[in-house]
From TrEMBL:
PANTHER family: TETRATRICOPEPTIDE REPEAT PROTEIN 17 (PTHR16091:SF3), TTC17 PROTEIN (PTHR16091). Residues 107-116 have a biased composition (Polar residues). The keyword Calcium does not apply. InterPro entries: TPR-like_helical_dom_sf, TPR_2, TPR_rpt, TTC17. Residues 92-116 are annotated as: Disordered. The keyword Repeat applies. The chain crosses the membrane at residues 311-331. The lineage of its organism: Eukaryota, Metazoa, Spiralia, Lophotrochozoa, Mollusca. Signal peptide: none annotated. This is TTC17-like protein. It comes from the Eukaryota. TPR repeats lie at residues 189-222, 260-293.
Length: 376
């Protein structure tokens, strides 16, 4: 039996080798590979026939292009513009532009600052900024989750001079005008802020925030851009972030320029907080800088009929203090009356010797006391 042992060891080594070869074969690679499904927004397992079959869809995998076409420039990780994934740009398209019939005709490159669909380009600010000093704010961190909130009142800043107050702004004309501005003066804070305000009117908060982030990446202390971003976050009820950006905008506003808009925005935020006293101060300051501003006057009238929470607290404190004072006075007067009553009564002392003598003589002690009281 001993001469069969080497054969058994060789057989075991052969089986292990076959198992290793089979585990590394093409038939099992698919289970260890993953691909990005852009439509579903998930990372899924790649099928065997997808990786090594006749289907070459894996060549168009966005995540695969990111991994294989990376490069480092000036210490930053970048992706070649010819093969860069445009997942963020696809999320910017509307539902009509995302129809399955036109999926094969979509072409987008981040080297250009717009998304192309046929001959029409979507007005964007290009690739998002890598970093700004305001990215720590929660409203900016969660910019991809914000709902769409249109701000039609923003269109007033695009109204032509001399136009009537009731005249509407042609959004198609405005979009073409901003596209021309983008070609003439690209990569400037003014261009990015105007495109951001355009998307505020449309209600796309994500695109507008990205445009303002690009403007702040170039000019981090721009008071106008800070105020625009604060208005967006205020509408989204990120009050702490909005008040921080508005105060920053007010601090960065030059002294020779009017700051009524910053004071008005601070008044609205503080009113939403319930700080009516401080809010009224900012509304009054806005009216001094912009007399006759109806919205500030309306806020002041509204707060005049609303009880101030701080005044209500002070009133309750005064009432409690008065009640405690009255109770303390009643208790003190009762103690004083009791002491006076005790002092007015005659004190009776027990005379033990007289009591013993009266007991021996058989005299009633009460008779003796009565005689003393009668003066006998």
């Amino acid at each position: 039996m001993t001469y069969d042992l080497p054969c058994m060891s060789y057989m075991a080594m052969y089986l292990i080798s076959v198992h290793i070869v089979n585990s590394n074969s093409r038939s099992s690679v698919g289970a260890n590979h993953w691909r990005l499904n852009v439509e579903e927004g998930k990372v899924l397992k790649a099928d065997d026939d997808l990786l090594f079959g006749n289907n070459h869809e894996v060549d168009d995998d966005a995540m695969f292009r990111i991994i294989t076409n990376q490069r480092i420039e000036d210490g930053q990780w970048l992706v070649d513009s010819q093969t860069e994934c445009t997942i963020n740009d696809r999320s910017m398209l509307t539902a009509e532009q995302e129809s399955p019939k036109n999926d094969q005709n979509k072409k987008a490159t981040t080297g250009k600052d717009s998304v192309t669909k046929g001959n029409k380009k979507l007005l964007t600010c290009g690739k998002p900024a890598n970093f700004t000093q305001y990215d720590h704010l929660r409203g900016i961190t969660q910019r991809g989750e914000h709902p769409h909130i249109p701000e039609p009142e923003v269109a007033i800043m695009f109204r032509k001079k001399g136009a009537k107050a009731s005249s509407d702004v042609d959004m198609t004309e405005l979009e073409s005008r901003l596209k021309k501005l983008k070609k003439q003066t690209p990569r400037t804070p003014s261009t990015y802020s105007q495109i951001g305000n355009f998307w505020r009117i449309k209600g796309n908060t994500q695109l507008s925030i990205e445009c303002f982030r690009k403007a702040l990446a170039i000019s981090p202390n721009s008071p106008d851009v800070l105020l625009y971003l604060a208005r967006i976050l205020f509408n989204l009820q990120f009050l702490d972030d909005a008040i921080f950006l508005t105060r920053r905008s007010l601090a960065m506003q030059p002294e020779n320029e009017n700051s009524w808009h910053q004071h008005f925005t601070l008044g609205e935020i503080l009113k939403a907080y319930g700080h009516y006293q401080e809010a009224s101060l900012h509304f009054q300051q806005a009216l001094r800088l912009n007399p006759g501003f109806q919205r500030a006057e309306a806020h002041l009238r509204d707060m005049e009929g609303t009880p101030n929470p701080s005044m209500t607290q002070y009133t309750l404190f005064i009432i409690l203090f008065l009640i405690m004072g009255v109770v303390f006075g009643v208790i003190t007067s009762m103690e004083a009356n009791y002491e006076e009553t005790t002092e007015g009564k005659p004190q009776r002392h027990f005379n033990r010797a007289m009591a013993m003598r009266s007991m021996k003589l058989g005299i009633n002690p009460r008779l003796i006391r009565m005689r003393k009281m009668n003066g006998v």
